[in-house]
Amino acid sequence: MAVDRGNAGVKRFADVHRRVAFRAYGAMRFLDRVQGAFEDVEGAVGARQFRVAAYQARFVVLACLSIRSLASEGDVYLDSDSASFDFFAGVPPDVIADGFALADAALDLDERTADAWMQRLRSYVAETERLLDYERPLPILRSPEGAFGLVGLTRRWSPLLEQLGLPPLLPDVWVSRDPAPR
Amino acid sequence: MIHTDPLAERLDAFLARRGTTHEALVAAIDEPFGRPLLVVAAGSVLHGFGNERSDVDVNVVVDRDVTRLPIGSYAHDVLVDTKYFSAGEVEGWIATIRDDPWPPARLDRDGWVRRQAEIINCSRFACGLVLSAQEQWRAWLAAIREPWLAERIVQWWRLESLRRELAARWLAPAKPLLAAVRAFESVLAALESRVAAAGQLYYGPKWLSEKLCIIDDTLGQQTLEEALRFPRFERDAPSYIAACTGMVASARPVGGEQVQAQLWLLPGVRIQELDGRTLVSRWNLRGAEVSPSIPLVARGGEPVWDAPLDAPPPPHVATLFTEDMTWLSIAATPA
User: Fold this and answer.
1) Less Cβ crowding at N or C end of chain A, within 10 Å?
2) Do domains B6-146 and B150-251 have the same CATH topology?
3) Contact B52 A47 (CB under 8 A)
4) Residue A24: CB partners within 8 Å, gap ≥ 6?
5) CATH number of B150-251: 1.20.272, 1.20.120, 2.20.28, 2.40.10?
């Protein structure tokens, strides 16, 4: 966990592996899972498909919690179809409860409340990205520039991940020649 | 253009609002892997439950090996998610999905991932709109549109519901909230199996509420509504999980397979004996020390443990599962 001692530009960490894991896999998880699901929620709210929005909001919150878990105990290998994958590892109970309160609120959306709730979810997602501590906003994967951003992120982190014995940043299904579940 | 095919009508209407056509969509397909043999449009828009932010999936079969990096392209403000498939891979689906028994007696994570991909991709081809096809591919399309695919999708979700229900039961003592997540997923999978049995084969749980509406499944909608009200605190998890178990019992179609639970070590897991204890770690980043040392022998290509569904795993195996060191499969019971 980062410790800001007030020295300009200096952050100290007890565990370098964890810090690297949090920032690198957290960013990839944000691109791969959070951005697209958040767009889905926006689209569903815009179309007044409130049940779809509620389902995807829950997915957004789970993905954001799993990013936060990377800072302490979470696994770097995002395997959400593994029946034991723990979205909450090391995340404080109040942070989990706040996330689910936000997701639950989507179940009671209507014309009157939808926009304000959407803004709350937007802030929640933005806060998750802020925690990752990048100098600039992360690239949007589903955008014309997304491919370049993905390549840049991978190039930046891959040598260090390899050096630390951590798995590749790109999900294995993306680069495999086997059929990939997307 | 006048269509009688509702898929084509929906796609054309979606594209027309962006000033383009599906002919332009086909013309814009890159050919990094050579000339397409078959092009099929898929996605929620075609099935009537997409919205203005939805993308359009285009599946392309080519005559060479491909990779699956998910890079979208943009034409007329439409995000087009193009996936390329090799002809050999696609042709093999009929033999593997239709003809091979499922589940197999040994099912590791890679086997599960491969099957899921085959089910997703095959159903996208089967339920999609053909934009262009060489003549010999029309026979293949006719074959995957036969009833066996629906049966396999119903089975896939039924077994997934079972797998996640079992995980919820095993996780509940140590990680109640995570167990609640798995219980929710079990309900979701049971409902997916139910809508597939009613003809809604499109693979995409986020559209479950819309699929239940289309088939006018009031009980299913109520079940989903109830399951979505997720517990925020550990103290509320047991009653939620019990409610989910009841929902699954009424929603999940009945199957006839003889199956068992099977656990395999996950990627990155290492097990070392140390000072009379066992250190189980993953990626050298997290781990658990078990004392006294555990009687675990997981040879290459062997499951860590398998047993009937109603047999609880012994404590050391349960620890490996709750610590997220093992992959849970539902495999066939050996004859």
Assistant:
1) N
2) no
3) yes
4) A157, A160, A161, A166, A169
5) 1.20.120
